[in-house]
Structure formats: structure tokens, C-alpha cells
């Protein structure tokens, strides 16, 4: 299987460690359908599919991905996905705060803001949620409790659930490890 970026080295290394054979490359018809749905949340039109399938360009997959990333739907779909992940519109922020946060996420997606910068802006944000949309993260995570902070930050930004590992002691207000 060919490597297209440095990330593939990590993936193929992990697959080898867990003794798993990578799936073969998808067909062009499977790829065009999947890339449209995953990136912009829509199926390709008949014309878009035909244009891609008829192309003899060896770099047509990369070109299509670049094309889709530039479409406004890409920012909207990914802002929606991050909004779901961040639980935007819930708790104290209500719909107005949620809409402000969603718009801020859309803008970040359109600007192709790096993930580490996005995470830093959310975690370090301050001020009123209506004046600094990133500060909605504080309302979402219920920052009054340290275990909520740790749980949400680890799940959202690291993809790891730690809620089952740690809990706060109600008497001592310190963190203790739960024995398995």
C-alpha cells in the first residue's frame, strides 16, 4: 500500500503492530461518493460524479479534496460536527450563545485555522460569551468543577475518555484514582 503523507507511516505501523492488513484502495465511484459525504455532507450531482469518473488526471482525488474544502458547505459541516462535539447551545449559553459559537467555528473552518490554534483559543478564552465566542467553551464544560474540565478537554481535544479513571473526593476536594 502506498504512503501519501507522513501520517500514513503511523497508520501502517499501527496496523502492522496489531496484525491487521489495510483495506485496498477504494474504487473511484466509491471514493467520489464518500469524499462528498464526509467533507460537505452532500452526495455529488450526476455532473460532478461524471466529471470525476471521466477524468484521466492521476491526481484527481487530491484535486477533488482541495475543491471540496474550498466550498462553503465544508465549513458548515465541520462547524456543525465541532458544535456537536462541544455541545454548543446546551447549558448556560442557550441558543444565542450557541449560534455565536457556531458562527465562530464556521469562520475558523473557512480560515483553515490549525487545530492546535483552535484548541488554544477555546481553552484560554476569557470574557463574556457574547463578546468572545471562544469563551462559550467555559459555559459548555461547566468550568466550576475540575473533573468536568479534565474530562471534557481530554475527550474533545485528545479523543480520550478519562471520566471512568478519575473522580473528585467530595470530602477532600482532591483527585483520587478509582481502583479497577
Characterization of this structure:
It is a single chain. The protein is mainly alpha-helical and 180 residues long. It has three domains: 16-70, no CATH class; 72-141, no CATH class; 144-180, no CATH class. It has helices spanning 6-17, 28-40, 46-54, 60-69, 72-86, 94-110, 115-124, 136-141, 146-158, and strands at 166-168, 175-177. The chain has a two-stranded antiparallel ribbon. Helix 5 packs across helix 6. It is globular, with a radius of gyration of 21 Å. The model has no long low-confidence stretch (mean pLDDT 84).
Name the features:
3 domains; 9 helices; mainly alpha; two-stranded antiparallel sheet; single chain; 180 residues; 3% strand; 2 strands
Assign a percent range to the helix content: 55-70%
Oligomer: single chain
Number of helices: 9
Structural class: mainly alpha
Number of strand segments: 2
Strand percentage lies at under 5%
Ranges where pLDDT stays below 50 over 5 or more residues in a row are: none
Please give the order of strands in the largest beta sheet. Answer: 1-2
Question: Span between N and C termini?
Answer: 40 Å
Computed Rg: 21 Å
Amino acid at each position: 500500500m502506498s504512503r501519501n503523507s507522513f501520517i500514513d507511516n503511523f497508520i501502517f505501523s499501527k496496523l502492522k503492530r496489531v496484525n491487521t492488513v489495510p483495506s485496498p484502495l477504494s474504487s473511484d465511484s466509491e471514493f467520489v461518493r464518500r469524499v462528498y459525504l464526509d467533507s460537505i455532507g452532500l452526495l455529488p450531482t450526476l455532473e460532478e460524479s461524471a466529471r470525476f469518473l471521466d477524468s484521466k488526471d492521476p491526481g484527481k482525488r487530491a484535486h477533488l479534496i482541495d475543491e471540496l474544502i474550498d466550498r462553503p458547505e465544508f465549513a458548515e459541516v465541520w462547524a456543525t460536527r465541532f458544535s456537536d462535539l462541544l455541545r454548543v447551545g446546551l447549558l448556560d449559553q442557550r441558543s444565542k450563545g450557541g449560534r455565536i459559537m457556531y458562527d465562530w467555528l464556521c469562520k475558523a473552518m473557512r480560515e483553515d485555522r490549525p487545530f492546535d490554534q483552535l484548541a488554544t483559543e477555546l481553552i484560554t478564552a476569557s470574557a463574556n460569551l457574547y463578546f468572545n465566542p471562544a469563551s462559550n467553551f467555559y459555559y459548555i464544560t461547566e468550568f466550576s468543577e475540575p473533573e468536568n474540565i479534565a474530562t471534557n478537554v481530554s475527550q474533545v481535544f485528545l479523543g480520550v475518555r478519562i471520566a471512568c479513571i478519575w473522580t473528585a473526593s467530595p470530602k477532600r476536594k482532591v483527585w483520587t484514582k478509582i481502583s479497577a
